[in-house]
Write a structure and sequence with these properties.
The radius of gyration is 18 Å and the shape is globular. The chain has 2 domains: 88 residues, RNA polymerase sigma factor, region 2, helix turn helix motif (Rna Polymerase Sigma Factor, Chain: A); 71 residues, Winged helix-like DNA-binding domain superfamily/Winged helix DNA-binding domain (Arc Repressor Mutant, subunit A). α3 crosses α4 and α4 runs parallel beside α7. It is mainly alpha-helical. The protein contains 8 helices and no strands.
């Protein structure tokens, strides 16, 4: 997730009231990477994920006149992404065609010390492997909250589950990751 946090309300206002392509471009740069990762997780295909995430952004542009009525554009975008992804999955099931790609996950660790960079690289690989061992729903909740910075409520709305279920999945994920990493580093 990028450190860049735009004023979403300001961007939405400029897009909906002034048809600002510049504001839309900033919104696109902010939302697209997270939407792509989310769609990729659901679709397991880079091409389909890019297409779905792009379709979300196109939908936002086409509905720009009504954007000022949307309370949380980030959740709005993720719900559109979920629905588009599920539609694609349903079409694929009917066609009996599935494409599987490797999951692409980024963890950014900033250190200039070469030794620390090597240690961080090893830690990143171990953490990625540990995240991959999580059950599917648990992994998705973990990524939405920890990687994409969504709140419990936003995650619950996107996945159409309760906040308590989101909390349970996150607690379970953290416990499992802690256990795996403790074993990996011989911590007690």
């Amino acid at each position: 997730m990028s450190n860049y946090l735009p004023d979403l309300n300001g961007l939405i206002s400029h897009i909906s009231l002034h048809n600002s392509e510049n504001a839309y471009e900033k919104l696109f740069k902010y939302l697209f990477p997270s939407l792509y990762r989310f769609c990729f997780y659901l679709l397991k295909s880079r091409e389909l994920a890019e297409e779905a995430a792009s379709d979300v952004m196109i939908t936002i542009w086409r509905n720009r006149q009504k954007l000022s009525e949307v309370k949380n554009v980030k959740v709005y975008a993720f719900v559109i992404a979920r629905n588009l992804s599920l539609n694609i999955i349903n079409k694929q099931a009917k066609q009996e065609w599935v494409s599987i790609d490797d999951l692409d996950m980024e963890i950014i660790l900033d250190n200039l010390n070469p030794e620390q960079l090597l240690i961080n690289g090893e830690l990143k690989k171990k953490l990625e492997r540990a995240v991959e061992t999580l059950p599917a729903q648990c992994k998705l909740v973990f990524k939405l909250i920890k990687e994409d910075g969504l709140s419990y409520k936003e995650t619950a709305n996107i996945l159409n589950i309760s906040i308590k279920t989101v909390d349970a999945h996150l607690v379970s994920a953290i416990k499992k990751l802690t256990t795996v990493l403790q074993a990996e580093f011989n911590l007690t």
